[in-house]
Specification:
This protein is α/β, with parallel strands linked by helices. The chain contains 7 helices and 5 strands, in the order βαβαβαββαααα. The chain folds into 2 domains: 125 residues, 3-Layer(aba) Sandwich (Rossmann fold), CATH 3.40.50; 51 residues, Arc Repressor Mutant, subunit A (Orthogonal Bundle).
């Protein structure tokens, strides 16, 4: 799982990165600006961002409002900088001073949350409606009848078309059916 450490001072980011690496966390990236953090999050896809109250170009709240879907934020700052009326379920606050144990356990908990969220989204994608199953089945029948394919060959063909065209399997099946109706 990915961790991005974002603090305005490079030495602070470097210290947190070192602490996390020594704690057994493997993929840790250190940045000093919100834009760098957003770019890193886009590249990595999922994980946890650990940041201070202020970055070199924005506040934690600005960064929090732009968090990609599979990221959670851990904001570490003095108690007077604590978020007020935090309605963001993906933002967790730890007051300074922070112990290594609380840092590690909080990040582990957040990573588990991100992992569960991704697993749930994947499961949702795998569950197809009856209408989707019928559409895929009809496209397979067309391929088997017209092109003398076996069912596994027709399925692989649909998967390949789906990947090549950048659409999902149901959309690829709909394309096959619409071409048949011409």
């Amino acid at each position: 799982m990915n961790i991005i450490v974002a603090f305005a001072k490079a030495e602070d980011a470097s210290k947190f990165k070192s602490i996390l690496l020594r704690g057994g966390f493997e993929s840790v990236t250190a940045v000093t600006s919100g834009m760098q953090a957003l770019s890193a999050m886009e590249d990595l896809g999922s994980g946890v961002i650990v940041c201070g109250y202020r970055l070199s170009d924005m506040l934690y709240s600005d960064l929090s409002s732009d968090l990609p879907g599979y990221f959670q934020m851990l904001m570490i700052a003095s108690p007077d900088k604590a978020p007020v009326g935090n309605d963001n379920s993906r933002l967790i606050y730890l007051p300074t001073p922070v112990t290594r144990e609380s840092l590690y356990s909080t990040i582990n908990m957040m990573m588990e949350g991100v992992h569960r969220l991704r697993k749930k989204a994947k499961q949702h994608r795998l569950e197809r409606s009856d209408a989707d199953k019928q559409t895929i089945g009809k496209a397979k029948e067309i391929l088997m009848d017209k092109h003398h394919m076996t069912e596994p060959q027709a399925h692989r063909y649909l998967q390949k078309r789906s990947m090549e065209s950048g659409c999902n399997l149901v959309e690829a099946a709909e394309m096959i059916i619409s071409l048949e109706n011409y």
